[in-house]
Every structure is written in C-alpha cells, then in structure tokens.
Amino acid sequence: MGGNRSWVTEFVLLGFQLSAETELLLFWVFSLLYTCSLLANGMIFALICLDQRLHTPMYFFLSHLAVIDMSYASNNVPKMLANLVTQNRAISFVPCIMQTFLYLGLAATECLILVAMSYDRYVAICHPLQYTVIMSWSVCTVLATTSWSFGFVLALIHAILLLRLPFCGPREVNHLFCEILSVLKLACADTWLNKVVIFAAAVLVLVGPLCLMLVSYIHILWAILKIQSGEGRRKAFSTCSSHLCVVGLFFGIAMVVYMVPDSSQREEKEKILSLFHSLFNPMLNPLIYSLRNAQVKDALCRALQVRAR
Fold first, then answer.
1. What is the pLDDT of residues 241-281, one digit of tens each?
2. pLDDT at residue 144 above 70?
3. End-to-end CA distance of the chain
4. Fewest beta carbons within 10 Å, which of 55, 161, 252, 308?
5. In sequence order, what DSSP letters do the residues of the chain get, joined into one string?
6. What is the chain's alpha carbon radius of gyration, rounded to the nearest angstrom?
7. What is the pTM of this model?
8. Highest mean pLDDT among 114-128, 142-156, 165-179, 264-278
9. pLDDT at residue 174, as a whole number
10. Least confident piece of the model among 61-75, 104-118, 244-258
11. Which residues does 119 contact at the CB level (< 8 Å), separation at least 6?
12. How many Cβ atoms sit within 10 Å of the Cβ of residue 10?
C-alpha cells in the first residue's frame, strides 16, 4: 500500500438513515424489545439455576441458549440504540472488530447448541429408556463445551483474517453494527480469502447442523405418529413444530445473508434481517422453548410463592 494513505481508525455505522421522528420511535420500540429479551432470558437462566427440578439435560442446554441470547443482543443492540438518538455514529476500530468477533462467535455457538438440543429431544422421544444413559452429564458438558469452543475458534479465525486487511477509506459501514461482510467492503485489499472462509464456515456451521437437526426431527415426527394417545401426540407435535419454526427462521435468515450471492438491494434487506437475530430471536427463544413449558411455569410459580412469604 502507498505510504501517503491515511489509515482508518474508526468507522461510521450508517444504520437505517430515517427521519429523526422515526428513529426516535424505533429507539423506544427496540428498547422495549431489548428489555423484554433480557428479562425473559434472565428469568429462564435464574429459574434453571435455582430450581432442582430443572436440572436436566434439556434445561441445561436452555440455560446456555439464554446466556447466548442475552450476550448476543447486548453485543449489538446498545450501540444500535445509541445511534438512533445521536448524530455521532462513530465506532473505533478495535471495538468494531470486537463486536464482529463476538457476533460471529455467539451466532456459531447458538447454531451448535440448537443441534445439541435437537439431539437431546431425539433421544428423549425416540429412545426414552436409554435417555439417562445416553444424555449423561458428562455428555452434556462435552457437547456444550465443544459448541462454545468451536464457535469462538471459528470467530477468531474470521477476526484474524479481518485484521490482516488494510483499511484506508471509505469508513462508512452500511449496517446497524459491525457485520463482517459490510466491514469487508471497506478494505483496501483483495478479500477473496475472507469470503471463501466465510462461505466455508457457513456450510460447516449452518448447512451441516441444519441437516442433522432435520434428520433428528424426522425421526421425532415418526416416533410421534406412533404415539397411541391423541393428547400425547398433540403435545409432542406442538412442541416440536414450534421448535422447528425457530430453527427454520434462525438458520434460514443466516443462510440468506451468508450464502446467497450479492444483489443490488442486499444491504438494506440485511439490516432488516439482522434485527431478527439481534432483537426478535432472543425474545422468541424463551417464549417458545421455555415459557410454554409446564415445568418452567411451575418453577416460576414456586419462586414467586417463596418470594411472597
């Protein structure tokens, strides 16, 4: 690179670029969603930790999902909210890279935790007699540890490849936060290696796990159809169908962002899609996976009764 170039020390997050009144309205809506997400996931995590009846493999994975959702939202949303009410939308280079690293690491970890949860449900429904043996605490710990480790090692690879690139202007990131593809567009060098690694990682973390989950749920559906009790079949199908909706939306949006070729209006669509992962998905997970569950409702009632005494 030429010696007379000025290197970028901070980026500017463009966001939605709407009128001041609209952005103020979005600030209050997003703040409400963010608060509800933190409260719901925090409550789920606290209940699972405090109630002995919830110390099972399924709730063990749900506690990890709650931590991921709180962390994921807290990594992106506060800066997003600040940008909606201030004219200064700058973010320094290092915080921007850290935001990218955490966003990628938490997203990859959530994909793998969802796979572990689908495997847990597969064993519980298809092999109930061997459930306690197959899903022992050592197996659950290995699955959770592997998910976190693999997710953040993958994110570290992306961050290292990003740090090797020179950034010399422009500095406007056309996104709500430091999303890796949007940051890559500002690099003053060839980014083909970064894009190849991103696509390979998407295949590894999205396509592979999604196929495993679909196989698990196909077996689960087949087992549900064999249930003699109509009520039991209905409850099992209701639970699995809601889980599949969340999984489909999460993986579907991620695959659209990282595996579909560029289009002229892709950036604006990505901003809207990113809102689902940052705001709606962390709020939907506790509602669908936990708060509709009778055991969680009972645990919440017991906790409220103890507090009322």
1. 767 777 777 888 788 777 776 655 566 777 877 888 888 88
2. yes
3. 70
4. 308
5. --TTPPPP-EEEE-TT---HHHHHHHHHHHHHHHHHHHHHHHHHHHHHHH-GGG-SHHHHHHHHHHHHHHHHHHHHHHHHHHHHS-S--EEEHHHHHHHHHHHHHHHHHHHHHHHHHHHHHHHHHH-GGGHHHHT-HHHHHHHHHHHHHHHHHHHHHHHHHHHTS---S--EE-SSS--HHHHHTT-SS--HHHHHHHHHHHIIIIIHHHHHHHHHHHHHHHHHHT-S-HHHHHHHHHHHHHHHHHHHHHHHHHHHHHHSPP-TTHHHHHHHHHHIIIIIHHHHHIIIIIITSHHHHHHHHHHHHHHH-
6. 21
7. 0.87
8. 142-156
9. 86
10. 244-258
11. 143, 212, 216
12. 12
Structure confidence at residue 65 (pLDDT): 92
Tell me which residue has tokens 């064999």.
Answer: 226
119 in Cβ contact with 69 (< 8 Å): no
For the chain, give the number of residues. 309
| AA letter at 201 | A
Confidence bin at 28 (pLDDT 50/70/90) = very high
Taking the CB of residue 7, how many other CB atoms lie within 10 A of it? 11
Indicate the burial class of 178 (C-beta count within 10 angstroms; 0-12, 13-18, 19 or more).
Answer: buried
How is residue 89 written in tokens? 């939308």
Dump pLDDT digits (tens) for 275-298: 888 888 888 878 777 666 777 777
Structure tokens, 206: 């999205």
How many C-beta neighbours within 10 Å does residue 155 have?
22
Two tokens, residue 132: 């306690």
